[in-house]
Write a structure and sequence with these properties.
This protein has a four-stranded antiparallel β-sheet with strand order 2-1-3-4, with helices on one face. The protein is elongated. The chain has two domains: 2-76, P-loop containing nucleotide triphosphate hydrolases (Rossmann fold); 84-122, no CATH class. With 122 residues, it is an alpha+beta fold. It has helices spanning 42-49, 92-103, 109-118, and strands at residues 2-13, 16-27, 57-62, 65-66. Helix 2 packs across helix 3 (109-118). Bound molecules: adenosine-5'-triphosphate (ATP) and magnesium ion.
Length: 122
């Protein structure tokens, strides 16, 4: 099974085609870098892979699951974006509580404190 499989991927914003027939395969355990000039569509591709935006055409599969079943694999993938998505006026605990609420995840104060402790953010 491949970690990432992209076939015939296209993405347009209005009349502007940003991704044209992208095909790529990343095998499990492979370390894969992909490079492109500014505006080439790298972030757009990552956003499609992570379900933030939809492709205009083509197919994407992560760990064998098609992207429209992304909820099934979200627990098994991680993404570190190049910009911070934190609200800087919130504490770490308040931020996690807020995000859990938005995602409909029921989590107790103790679970949040435990998670923060595990990554050294108590
Ligand atoms: N939501 C959007 N609406 C319209 N155009 C967009 C949108 N998002 C990206 N674009 C355009 O799509 C193209 C690809 O953008 P993208 O951010 O994917 O490039 P990138 O390769 O990540 O660039 P960089 O190296 O600057 O991070 C750019 O021309 C950008 O202006
Ligand atoms: Mg980018």
């Amino acid at each position: 099974m491949n970690a990432i499989e992209v076939r015939g991927l296209k993405k347009s914003f209005g009349a502007k085609e940003v991704l044209h027939e992208v095909n790529l395969t990343v095998e499990q355990g492979e370390i894969f870098g992909f490079l492109g000039r500014n505006g080439a569509g790298k972030s757009t591709l990552i956003q499609i892979l992570t379900g933030i935006t939809q492709a205009s055409a083509g197919t994407v599969a992560l760990l064998g699951e098609p992207a429209d079943r992304l909820d099934a694999i979200k627990r098994r993938i991680g993404v570190m974006p190049d910009t911070s998505n934190l609200y800087h006026d919130m504490t770490a605990r308040a931020f996690l509580e807020y995000m859990a609420g938005l995602s409909g995840v029921r989590v107790s104060k103790n679970e949040i404190l435990d998670l923060l402790g595990r990554v050294g953010l108590s």
